[in-house]
Design brief:
This protein has 411 residues and is α/β, with parallel strands linked by helices. It has 11 helices and 20 strands. The protein folds into 2 domains: 3-174, 3-Layer(aba) Sandwich (Carbamate kinase), CATH 3.40.1160.10; 244-411, VC0802-like.
Length: 411
């Protein structure tokens, strides 16, 4: 008998019939003797509908009140699930985020879980009940409701699994697992049996939409095994596990892309100590994440700084930097929201030379110019014009032999 945390996304609970289908899956697992905690997202489209309602009331809704509104989506899901469960003979009890002990910081709309006081969940499990937790939400130190941002239900599930020391956290979604690339762009993308925490962290941060990056961070920190699988089939999915458990260490595990970035260039920056700090400090204080930073070689005491920020933060970053540029006497600030980040990822990259050269050669052969490059031990990312995204992904996927019909290239 295992303790299993299952998470079902918005598509999985997108209608009353789909909620009933999830209840049947949970009941079947319970009848096999497993103890279960089920984390649910809002029904597909519900969060967007609630945001639109808020914006009809005010173009810039108060963040605190918006969080109060948005959590009603998950409240609806868990209540409907438990009502259906009782009708099918399954003893299920719903808990909202604060009732489940999910304690967060105070950043409305993008709160981070600080700890999970799982006492009430454990009590209900000990009573033989299935515990159904509303994802995406928690409570801050002042007692206010918070939301965790997009993908927050994944994080809820893994955090609960860590607190309960669950045997596995099953993330049910509308895809069958983690693939070597986006099957919508690369038709012969191959489902991976296993992927390491490190690889999944890179994939999640670089555009793969299967798991939220914060959920993978939790899993890696607390050793939670994640099984990514489809709600609509009983096929095995992909296990996300420690690197030492990965049986097949491929040179390149996957090709990802993100169109959610914008590129900023601060030109004519005086090359003296403390200037970089002045450029990035106000961006950091605004909670904007910066990536792919490049500083050109200094020429006569002048240099250029370029970097990427999330596209949603582009306008704010540009406004902040316009003032900074005047203060540090930089020449100008240029911005380009029409970029994409294409990346190759693989733990086998550590032991293989020439991977970067091959990637650059593939892009060059397709006439794709590289604007920025960033690397780590297990990934290489290139910023390119967004109109070339699909071409770049397909070309790299083929060049590194990642398709269904290609033999996998292990270390």
């Amino acid at each position: 008998m295992a303790l299993i945390v299952q998470k079902y996304g918005g598509t999985s609970v997108g209608s009353l019939d789909r909620i009933r289908n999830v209840v049947r899956k949970v009941k079947a697992a319970a009848e096999r003797g497993h103890r279960l905690v089920v984390v649910l997202s809002a029904m597909a489209g519900e969060t967007d509908r609630l945001i639109e309602l808020a914006r009809q009331m005010h173009e810039d809704p108060d963040p605190r009140e918006l969080d109060v509104l948005l959590t009603t989506g998950e409240q609806q899901s868990v209540a409907l699930f438990c009502i259906a469960a009782r009708g099918m003979g399954l003893d299920a009890r719903s808990l909202l985020g604060f009732q489940a002990g999910l304690q967060t910081d105070r950043f409305y709309g993008k709160a981070r879980i600080e700890r999970v006081e799982a006492r009430r969940i454990q009590e209900l499990l000990d009573q033989g009940r299935v515990v159904v937790v509303a994802g995406f939400q928690g409570i801050d130190p002042e007692g206010d409701i918070t939301t965790l941002g997009r993908g927050g239900s994944d994080t809820t599930a893994v955090a609960v699994a860590a607190a309960l020391q669950a045997d596995v956290c099953e993330i049910y979604t509308d895809v069958e697992g983690v693939f070597t690339s986006d099957p919508n762009i690369v038709p012969d993308a191959r489902k991976l049996k296993q992927v390491s925490y490190e690889e999944m962290l890179e994939m999640a941060s670089l555009g793969a939409k299967v798991l939220d990056i914060r959920s993978v961070e939790f899993a890696a920190k607390f050793g939670v095994r994640i099984h990514v699988r489809s709600t609509f089939t009983d096929k095995e999915g992909t296990m996300v596990v420690p690197e030492e458990e990965v049986q097949e260490k491929l040179v390149i595990t996957g090709v990802t892309y993100s169109k959610n970035d914008a590129r900023i260039v601060v030109r004519g920056v005086p090359d003296r100590p403390g200037v970089a700090h002045k450029v990035f400090a106000p961006i950091s204080e605004a909670g904007i994440v910066v990536d792919v930073i490049i500083q050109n070689a200094s020429v006569e005491g002048i240099t250029d700084l370029s970097f990427t920020v999330p596209k949603t933060d582009f306008k704010q970053a540009m406004n902040l930097l316009s003032g900074v540029a005047r203060e540090i006497e930089a020449q100008e600030v240029l911005g380009d929201p029409n970029v994409a980040k294409v990346s190759i990822i693989g733990i086998g990259m550590r032991n293989h030379a020439g991977v970067a050269t091959k990637m650059f050669g593939v892009l060059a052969s397709e006439g794709i110019n590289i604007q920025n490059i960033t690397t780590s031990e297990i990934k290489i990312s290139c910023v390119i014009e967004d109109k070339y995204t699909e071409l770049a992904v397909r070309a790299l996927h083929e060049a590194f032999g990642l398709g269904e019909d290609s033999p996998p290239r292990a270390e």
